[in-house]
Specification:
This protein is mainly β. The protein contains one helix and ten strands, in the order H-E-E-E-E-E-E-E-E-E-E. The strands form two sheets. It has an eight-stranded antiparallel barrel with strand order 1-2-3-4-7-8-9-10. A hairpin with a 4-residue loop joins strand 2 and strand 3. The longest helix has 31 residues. The radius of gyration is 28 Å and the shape is elongated.
Length: 232
């Protein structure tokens, strides 16, 4: 009789220990679940882009006229699924005019922009507003290096525009965007004869030149996030 009671007691203790262990394991898994979507997520991405560029100003008032090739590279840092910061370097050529007012020179651009995604851009089937694609808006500050009267000059611009991002398979992403770079001067043509201090150039009401680009790009995820599971 004593042996039977002793055995039952040991079996009960063993079952209790196993149940407690099982509950503890479930708790640890539960604490990690909110971060599960981030286990394979990355903080940043790098990539290349290319497309078409043209400018609107004194020598051109028609969009997509005198279109040239634009190409470059970008780095994007993701603060979360909605907000990101982007640094982009690119290069394009501008040409137009005729005779003494003809111009043809390269423009180098550096843009530092903040981005806002309209959806939570991530792979998370359990999150309501989670998408593998997202339209976005961006705005920032930029710098443009170009030729003016046979000498290189530097101008400040305001880059802004719209785009769409798509998460592809693995660590690759696709994005397409339409960019506007409003130069805070009226000399992007590089020819002094186009500068008219007494009138507007017709490009916009601010009498500033505008460089527009339509590009597509491929980026690769880098800088993997770690699991931020809570410690017990």
């Amino acid at each position: 009789m004593h042996v039977y009671i002793f055995s039952q007691s040991r079996i009960g203790s063993h079952m209790y220990f196993k149940s407690k262990t099982f509950i503890l394991v479930c708790l640890l898994c539960g604490l990690c679940l909110p971060s599960h979507a981030q286990l394979n997520d990355y903080r940043a991405e790098i990539g290349v882009l290319g497309g078409a560029a043209y400018y609107l100003g004194d020598a051109n008032l028609t969009p997509f006229r005198h279109t040239t090739i634009d190409y470059g590279a970008l780095f994007r840092y993701r603060f979360d699924t909605r907000f990101a910061a982007r640094a982009e370097v690119s290069r394009a050529r501008l040409y137009g005019g005729s005779g003494e007012t003809a111009f043809d020179h390269a423009v180098n651009m550096l843009d530092l922009c903040g981005e806002f995604n309209f959806f939570d851009l991530e792979r998370n089937e359990y999150k309501r507003f989670s998408k593998t694609f997202a339209p976005y808006l961006f705005v920032g500050v930029g710098f443009m290096d170009y030729s003016y009267e046979q000498a290189r000059t530097l101008g400040v611009s305001i880059p802004f525009g719209i785009g769409i991002k798509v998460k592809l398979g693995g660590r690759f992403n696709f994005n397409a965007q339409f960019s506007n770079r409003l130069l805070l001067k009226d000399d992007l043509e590089g020819v002094a004869a186009y500068n008219d201090p007494n009138g507007l150039n017709g490009g916009n009401l601010l009498n500033n030149d505008l460089l527009q680009t339509l590009t597509v790009g491929i980026t690769f995820d880098i800088w993997k996030r770690g699991c931020d599971c809570h410690k017990l």
